């Protein structure tokens, strides 16, 4: 397979456990024999799930997929906390559950954590403080103040139907839909704290990212099979599929020429209050991403022009 084939699009990968997101990018590069590949938001090695991989011209929209909302199903373990806030870390604290935890208690906590919340990133994370990643400080045993971040939890649902949870430790599953930058591991810890116990996220699966669902995804084995049977085109989603969550403005031919040349344009009335990116569509193809102009009132400017040869 030659690189001159101009592979463009999004590979909806179902990431396996045991690989970093970077490992997945490197494997896709090798399988497709192309260098222009990027992922759309890091998943921890032990987490499985939806990891959209941008190839060719689609790498121009990585940031928009990274910024898009994501959904997860996770298992929260109450009674034990770990260094990494997941099952990979060493145990930090254990506390037996003294009395049954009722469903109503958990639902009340989940309700309190829905909406805008503040989180402190885990020490074992890639957040940079003073030019160094937190996991580097953690490995060296150096304490460091971690910056708080505000994230949005759109949905937080208890999936288990039990009326009460008993045992020295208890486990229950939750469904989370959230904004970029949310640490689901930390959410588990926060749930435990509000219930009065140490906690960690014992299992985690990303079920959607930028509107791409599990049913859209391919495993590495399936991708290799498609390549071997000369069905490579079947693994790609068009760029438009991954930008479905953005507001869309459909334009005519004359305006399309100006958009391709990066023109500053009037912001149509329905989009005057839109702070985020707007997808500009022509002939059912997204040809640019625009944003409200920072200084010119009522105008918008190109954030990214997508030119395909």
UniProtKB/TrEMBL annotation:
The keyword RNA-binding does not apply. Coiled coil: none annotated. It is an enzyme of class 5 (isomerase). Residues 29-184 form the Pseudouridine synthase II N-terminal domain. The keyword Isomerase applies. It comes from the Bacteria. It catalyses: uridine(55) in tRNA = pseudouridine(55) in tRNA. Its EC number is 5.4.99.25. Residues 185-243 form the tRNA pseudouridylate synthase B C-terminal domain. Pfam families: TruB_C_2, TruB_N. Keywords: Isomerase, tRNA processing. Gene3D superfamilies: Pseudouridine synthase. InterPro entries: PsdUridine_synth_cat_dom_sf, PsdUridine_synth_N, tRNA_psdUridine_synth_TruB, TruB_C. The active site is at residue 44. Belongs to the pseudouridine synthase TruB family. Type 1 subfamily. Responsible for synthesis of pseudouridine from uracil-55 in the psi GC loop of transfer RNAs. This is tRNA pseudouridine synthase B. It comes from Pallidibacillus pasinlerensis. The lineage of its organism: Bacteria, Bacillati, Bacillota, Bacilli, Bacillales. The gene is truB.
């Amino acid at each position: 397979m030659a690189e001159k084939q101009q592979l463009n699009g999004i590979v909806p990968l179902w990431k396996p456990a045991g690989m970093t997101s970077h490992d997945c990018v490197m494997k896709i590069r090798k399988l497709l024999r192309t260098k222009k590949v990027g992922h759309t938001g890091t998943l921890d090695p032990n987490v499985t799930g939806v990891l959209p991989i941008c190839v060719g011209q689609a790498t121009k929209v990585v940031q928009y997929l990274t910024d898009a909302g994501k959904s997860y199903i996770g298992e929260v373990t109450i009674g034990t906390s770990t260094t990494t806030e997941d099952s990979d870390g060493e145990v930090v604290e254990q506390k037996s559950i003294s009395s049954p935890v009722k469903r109503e208690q958990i639902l009340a906590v989940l309700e309190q954590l829905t909406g805008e919340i503040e989180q402190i990133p885990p020490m074992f994370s890639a957040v940079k403080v003073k030019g160094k990643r937190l996991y580097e400080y953690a490995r060296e045993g150096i304490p460091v103040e971690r910056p708080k971040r505000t994230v949005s939890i759109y949905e937080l649902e208890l999936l288990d139907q039990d009326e009460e949870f008993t045992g020295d430790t208890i486990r229950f599953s939750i469904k989370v839909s959230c904004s970029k930058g949310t640490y689901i591991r930390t959410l588990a810890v926060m749930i435990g704290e509000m219930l009065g116990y140490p906690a960690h996220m014992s299992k985690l699966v990303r079920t959607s990212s930028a509107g791409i669902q599990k049913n859209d995804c391919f495993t590495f084995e399936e991708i290799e099979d498609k390549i071997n049977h000369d069905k490579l085109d079947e693994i790609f989603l068009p760029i438009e599929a991954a930008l479905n969550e953005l507001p869309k403005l459909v334009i005519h031919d004359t305006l399309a020429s100006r958009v391709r040349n990066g023109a500053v344009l009037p912001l149509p009335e329905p989009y005057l209050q839109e702070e985020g990116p707007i997808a500009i569509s022509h002939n059912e193809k997204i040809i640019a991403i625009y944003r409200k102009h920072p200084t010119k009132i009522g105008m918008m400017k190109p954030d990214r022009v997508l030119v395909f040869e």
